[in-house]
Design a protein that fits this description.
Elements (H helix, E strand, L loop, with lengths): L1 H4 L2 E3 L9 H7 L4 E4 L6 H4 L3 E4 L3 H12 L3 H13 L1
Parallel strand pairs: 1-2, 2-3
């Protein structure tokens, strides 16, 4: 569960002007958000996950998140902070 506390989760159908994701990135916290938000670069910049909207997608991605090695999460956090 400690891992889940170290990743910002941002689940929504759309984003009109949210600052949750940039605030988390600025703090060096990797982010998981949905395709409803315009953050596709989270994955290409290796500082988070951009997943389809819906519970099924979240259920599929959480085991992957939980299997991330601490050193890989630290690298993601470093990338998040430098974005």
């Amino acid at each position: 569960m400690e891992l889940l506390r170290s990743v910002a989760k941002h689940r929504q159908l759309f984003e009109n002007f949210g600052i949750v994701v940039p605030e988390a990135l600025a703090a060096g916290v990797p982010v998981m958000t949905t395709h409803g938000a315009p953050w596709h670069e989270l994955e290409t910049k290796h500082c988070g996950w951009w997943i389809p909207v819906g519970q099924a997608a979240l259920d599929a991605e959480l085991p992957k998140l939980l299997s991330v090695k601490p050193e890989d999460l630290a690298a993601m956090a470093s990338g998040a902070g430098s974005w």
